[in-house]
């Protein structure tokens, strides 16, 4: 629980919060969060987690930085184009907080590596940009019993929800199965949309590590930048859910 | 009859079904999750799902970006 004078100064504002203090800061330092995707959602999520003093941050992404990413993926800069995203991200995160230990995985999250990656972390941020990965993360986190924060975005809006596997509604309770690919070239999103939602995912990870407040479980929060409205939709575990439901429950 | 769709009141004809409502909303049935009074209604059951005055309907668009 000892913090150096430099750490005491770096985290002074958090240490001054009675809900955090040195005990909470020690929990953050002991925390291990895996951010899957170092793009639009992963950028703000990883920045805030490193800034807050999360001790170990895993970053997983198989892509390289493209010029068209920079409109929203604020971890990366013009000079990083062509560089592996996890390495570009790591340079910024190290500069922000050298005390955060980074574990870099320059690869996609797959069924083959899922269990090994999840085993080393205690909270996961789904910051991926495709349905196949989002459904795979839902399934793998359920199998591993790993809590995680989902987010997905589209054009000017998006949604976020935290899942405690086996305890709260899962992604498949609401979005039962992967929709067909449209084949259309992606439109958007407006960069601030993943900025807002990735920041909320970081808030969930920090609250989970601290055991503080109420997590965004059994409710899906939607955000629309055009109307600037958030809406909270109650969701509950579905007995017939193909992932977390009762296997004896008849499918409707 | 009046429904509450994504938090807004909407007037719909008596006997309307969930599938009918989605058509009226212009929703892509394969790319939305739908909850009626907090219960998820799978795509296969929406044509037969009758709506009643006061029902709370949530139409959630699949969002796969990041
Ligand atoms: Zn479920």
Q: What spatial form of chain A do the alpha-carbon principal axes imply?
A: globular
Q: Total helix count of chain A?
A: 9
- Strand order, main sheet of chain B: write it out: 2-1-5-3-4
pLDDT < 50 runs, ≥5 residues of chain B:
none
The total tally of domains of chain A equals 1
Structural class of chain A: alpha/beta
- At CATH level 2, the architecture of chain A is 3-Layer(aba) Sandwich
Distance, first to last CA of chain A: 52 Å
The CATH architecture classification of chain B is: Roll
Q: How many domains would you count in the coordinates of chain B?
A: 1
Oligomer: heterodimer
Question: What's the helix-strand series of chain B?
Answer: EEHEEE
> In CATH, what is the class of chain A?
Alpha Beta
**Looking at CATH, which topology of chain B would you report?**
Ubiquitin-like (UB roll)
Q: Estimate the strand proportion of chain B.
A: 25-35%
Number of strands of chain B: 5
Profile the largest sheet of chain B.
Answer: 5 strands, mixed
Descriptive account of the structure:
The complex is a heterodimer of chains A (252) and B (66). Chain A contains nine helices and eight strands. Chain A has 252 residues and is of the alpha/beta class. Chain A has helices spanning 5-10, 12-15, 21-30, 42-52, 85-96, 114-119, 131-144, 171-174, 192-210, and strands at residues 32-36, 56-60, 101-105, 123-126, 148-154, 157-163, 219-224, 229-234. In chain A, helix 4 (42-52) runs parallel beside helix 5 (85-96) and helix 4 (42-52) packs parallel to helix 9. Chain B has 66 residues and is mostly beta strands. Chain B has a single domain, classed as Beta-grasp domain (Ubiquitin-like (UB roll)). Chain B is built from one helix and five strands, in the order E-E-H-E-E-E. Chain B has a five-stranded mixed β-sheet with strand order 2-1-5-3-4, with no helix packed on it. Chain B is globular, with a radius of gyration of 11 Å. The N and C termini of chain B lie far apart (38 Å). The A-B interface holds A 37, 39-42, 126-131, 134, 151-154, 157-159, 173-176, 179-180, 186, 188-189, 194, 220, 222, 231, 233-236, 238, 252 and B 6-7, 30-31, 33, 35, 38-40, 42, 44-45, 58, 60-66. Bound molecules: zinc ion. Zinc ion binds at residues 170, 172-173, 237-238, 241, 243-245 of chain A. Zinc ion (ZN) is lined by residues 170, 172-173, 237-238, 241, 243-245 of chain A.
């Amino acid at each position: 629980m000892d913090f150096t004078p430099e750490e005491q100064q770096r985290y002074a504002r958090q240490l001054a919060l009675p809900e955090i203090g040195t005990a909470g800061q020690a929990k953050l330092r002991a925390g291990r969060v895996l951010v899957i995707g170092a793009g639009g959602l992963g950028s703000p999520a990883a920045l805030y987690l490193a800034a807050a003093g999360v001790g170990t941050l895993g970053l997983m992404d198989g892509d390289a930085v493209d010029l068209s990413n920079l409109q929203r993926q604020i971890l990366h800069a013009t000079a990083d184009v062509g560089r592996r995203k996890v390495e570009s991200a790591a340079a910024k995160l190290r500069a922000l907080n050298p005390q955060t230990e980074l574990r870099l995985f320059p690869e996609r999250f797959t069924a083959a590596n899922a269990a090994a990656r999840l085993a080393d972390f205690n909270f996961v941020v789904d910051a991926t940009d495709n349905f196949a990965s989002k459904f795979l993360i839902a399934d793998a986190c359920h199998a591993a019993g790993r809590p995680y924060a989902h987010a997905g975005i589209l054009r000017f809006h998006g949604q976020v929800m935290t899942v405690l596997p086996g305890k709260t509604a899962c992604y498949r309770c609401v979005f039962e199965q992967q929709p067909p690919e449209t084949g259309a070239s992606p439109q958007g999103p407006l960069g601030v949309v993943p900025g807002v939602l990735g920041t909320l995912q970081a808030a969930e990870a920090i609250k989970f590590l601290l055991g503080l407040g109420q997590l965004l479980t059994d409710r899906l929060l939607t955000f629309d930048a055009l109307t600037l409205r958030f809406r909270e939709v109650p969701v509950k575990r579905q007995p017939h859910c193909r992932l977390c439901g009762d296997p004896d429950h008849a499918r409707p | 009859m009046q429904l509450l769709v994504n938090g807004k009141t909407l007037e719909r004809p008596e006997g309307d079904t969930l599938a009918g409502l989605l058509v009226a909303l212009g929703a892509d049935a394969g790319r939305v999750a739908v909850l009626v009074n907090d219960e998820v209604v799978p795509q296969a059951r929406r044509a037969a799902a009758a709506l009643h005055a006061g029902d709370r309907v949530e139409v959630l668009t699949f969002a796969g970006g990041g």
